[in-house]
Structure formats: C-alpha cells, structure tokens
Amino acid sequence: MPLDYRRVADLGTVSISVTRLPATDVEARIGSLVLNPGGPGGSGVDLAWSYASLFPTDLLAHFDLVGFDTRGVSRSTPVDCGDPDRSFRVVERDCVAKSGDLLPYVGTQNAARDMEQLRKALGDEQLTYLGFSYGTALGAVYANLFPGSVRALVLDGSVDPTAGAYNIDGTVVGPYGSPFSGVQDFGGTVDVFFELCDATRSCAAGPRSAALLDDLYSNVDDAGTDYFDERDETVTAGQVDGIITSAMYNTDLWAPLAVGLADAANGDASRLAALGSYLEAGYPREETVTDNLTEANRAIYCADFAGRRGRFAVDWCAGWPETAEPIAPIVAVDVANPIVVIGTDGEPATPGFLAPQMADALGDAVSVRWQGAGHTAFLHSDCVDLIVVDYLVDLAVPKDRSRCGFTDDVNTTVASAERVFEVDRGRFEVRLTDVFVAEGSSLADAACLADGLVAEGTDSQLVYARLGVQQPQYLRLRERIERGCATG
Questions:
Q1: String of b and e for 187-222 (b: at least 16 CB within 10 Å)?
Q2: CA 351 to CA 139: how far, in whole Å?
Q3: Residues 141 and 109: beta-carbon distance below 8 Å
Q4: d(CA 328, CA 330)
Q5: Residues 372 and 429 in one domain
Q6: 232 and 90 in one domain?
Q7: What are the φ/ψ torsions at residue 212 (nearest 5 degrees)?
C-alpha cells in the first residue's frame, strides 16, 4: 500500500499482512468478513486465527474469514522501537530513529484507505466488516471515507465518535477529557464482579468479595507461589490490581479470578500468579516475536491525536514527528444498509453509552445494548450473536436500541451470577486438550486426560490445569487419569 495516499509515487509503500480462511460452503458464500481486534495495535491476523474455532458456523459457511494487520502492526510493516525494556526516553529515541519515516502515516485515516484496497483485492463489491473496540473507529472512519463501499458493518464496543476532535492542535479536548474511548469505567465493572460474586456460592471469592480483596491488598505479600513454577517470589498489591483490571475485559476470566483471589486470601497466591502470567502471554507461555502491540499502540495514538503544543498536548507524543493526518470526528453517512453499533452496560474500556452516540453520529445506523459486562459483546451472548449473524448474512437490521439480557434465558441477578461463575466444562474440555497438546501430549492422550479431568475434577482443579498450577491434589488426580488413559 502507498505510505502516503496523497503522494502515492513519492514516499514508497508499506506491506500489509493478510490471512484468509475460505468459507465452508462454496455455494452459499457471500464474500469476505474482514476483522479488526482494536488496540489500537492488535493483530487482525492473530484475531482471525484465534476466532476461527469460536465463530458461529453460519458466518464461517457464508464468509471467508479475513484478518489483516494494520500498517505499523505485527506482521505488516511494523513500528520498531528496539528493546522495549529500557527507559522511556531511550525507547522513544529508537522509535524515531528506526521508524521515523513510518510514524506520521500509521493513523486510522490511512488504515481505512488500506482496508478499501484490501476490499478490492479480495474481489468484494462492498465491505462486510466486524470491528472491536478501537476497530469501531476504523470501521466508522471507513464509512465516512467510502460510504458507497459499505455492505454491512458491525462496530462492537464503540469509541467516542467525537474523539477525533481531541488534541488536533493542542487546544481542543474531547467531551470526556480523554481520546479514543472517552471516559473508562473499570471500577464500575469491578462493582459488577463483586455484586455477582456475592450472589452465588459458585464464586470462590464470595460472599463478601470486596472485603476479601481489601484484606488481600494488605496481606498478599505474605502469600507464597509454591505451586506455580514460573514465579518463585510473592505477588504484589500492584500486580493484583493489574490482574483484576485485565480480568475485567472478559467474564470468562471471572471464575478463575475468583479462585485466585480466594486461594491468595488463604495464603497461596500460586493461582493468582498463574492467572497474571496467563493474561500476559497465555499458558503455556507464547513468546510471539511478531508482536509489537505496545509500540504500535503508542504510534497510532500519537498519529491520530496529533497535538504537540497547547494546553491539551499529549506529553509522551512530544518527541515524535507530526502526523500526516489526524483522525477526524465521525460524521453522518448514507450507506446501503444501516450500520450496527453494539454497546455493553458493564464495559470497562469503551462504556456502553458511547454506542448510541456513535450510531447517532453516523446517522444511518442503529445501536444494540447488551446488559452484560466485559469488553465487547459478540461471542459472549447468544442474543447478540444471533443479531450479528442475521445482520451480516441476511442484512436483517435490528430495531434501534434493541437490548439483550446479561445472560441468555435467565433474568435474575442470582441466575446470572450462577451462569457467570460456574465453570463451562464443555469449553474447558476443548481448551484443556489444547493445553495438554502444547505441554507435549499426543492429541489422543490430551483428549483423554481433558475428558477425565472434566468428568472428575472440581472447578478449582480445572482452573489449575488451564493455568499450569501444580497443586498437589490436582496433580494426584491428573496422574491417576493419565495412567487410565495409558492403559485404556
């Protein structure tokens, strides 16, 4: 792709990495479904690979699943800052030295133009797109630039549509005083965690989870990590904060978090340490050499919010080159089919009230409300999934301000709490099989062991297996099941 679309022949090109999983039903194929994970700076290639096994079969039947890394990100021409584990100023200096020619051109305006070229390369007459978090900004900017190329856009976890006004010249601030998502509400999501945890016996940290956490902050330094091999020191109160913040992104992590908090409160922080390691790099740990999320995130941030002077200048962008084109505020569009914007009530990073604001800004759009918690709604609610699939496949536009309950088929706090904190054994069986294969077992042995643990293990033991915690009772159960698998 051109480095600068306004001077195509002058400044050379950037490479964009793309992956595609063909539709499973050739005769029913509609076209491509392009994905973006947000960040900014997240890898769309990785998102496609990880979501392929989770997507509804109707989407996989009708669409090629397409992920791409935006310019500056991962396998595309990346922002390179050298070793990130150095002082801030040294990293900043190396970013400019190594990627100074790229930095002005990694913003959302150019990423949207790249996506238009990708649409053409894929052979689609119009774009079908699913974007999460910052990916909603990319989708909305695309709609502003290329309204005639829009078939169907789903924007899940909307950012502030006026965020482009923030800090363009250092004199304008957005309505919430912060770019991209406006105000964030991690504290509100933690409150939802406490409320649901205290409402069910399925939550290991209840029934007074807030008090348990308060006590844990004072005592966690005394808790050992003997059963987690990758950490032989204590977990700090600051690390507990980071683990809780990261876990608020996905309610699937709330049951493991509750187990970790409860065990740490009883003097053993092994599970909490393992969860922190998992949130950082998975289990078994994956050291991905292509991942440059931190550098790409900052580069896109500074490119889109370009002010270097004035009252609202972003200090940590001051040493970087001026952006070629900051992101513009979102304006109304006229598209073939109304755009669907999804917001979540208990959303920590992009609060749900921004979704109707984005829909109003786009004009030709509707908003959907999920009364759940976590970052983005798709694949966390059958109700939301059905709306998304019907819209993307059949262009069935939901009613504006449609809503889906927190949990499907239940409508009380206690029932929702039980659904959230009960370990999903079917999902764990699939994930544990992958874990045991990654640890070195054959697929047959891994499947046998996972099946046995799901049938006989407690919820806590399944969490230990998923995170690599070497807790003695779990190990004894695992050894017995492994012997049965070997002789089976």
A1: eebbebbbbbbbbbebbbbbeebbebbeebeeebee
A2: 18
A3: yes
A4: 6
A5: no
A6: no
A7: -60, -45
- One domain, residues 55 and 158: yes
Q: Are residues 14 and 157 both part of a single domain?
A: yes
> Which tokens belong to 279?
């949130």
> Which sign does the torsion angle of CA 26, 32, 33, 36 carry?
positive
Neighbours of 412 (CB within 10 A): 11
Residues 175 and 201 in one domain: no
Helix or strand (DSSP H, E) at 344: strand 339-346
Strands 339-346 and 150-156, by their bridges, are parallel
Last residue of a domain, one of 404, 434, 455: 404
CA distance 288 to 269: 27
pLDDT in tens, 34-54: 999 999 999 999 999 988 888
Name 477's Cβ contacts closer than 8 Å, sequence gap at least 6: 453, 456, 457, 461
Residue-wise pLDDT for 428-469, tens only, equals: 898 899 999 999 999 999 999 999 999 999 989 999 999 999
Mark whether 156 and 201 lie in a shared domain: no
Long-range contacts of 266-269 (CB under 8 A, 24+ apart): 267/222, 267/223, 267/224, 268/223, 268/224, 268/225, 268/226, 268/227, 269/220, 269/223, 269/224, 269/225, 269/234, 269/235
- Same-domain status, 301 and 361: yes
DSSP assignment letter at 148: G
User: What does pTM read for this prediction?
Assistant: 0.92
Report the relative pairing of strands 150-156 and 127-132 from DSSP bridges.
Answer: parallel
Helix intervals (H) in 363-458: 382-394, 413-421, 425-439, 443-456
Q: Is the peptide bond before 207 cis (omega within 30 degrees of 0)?
A: yes
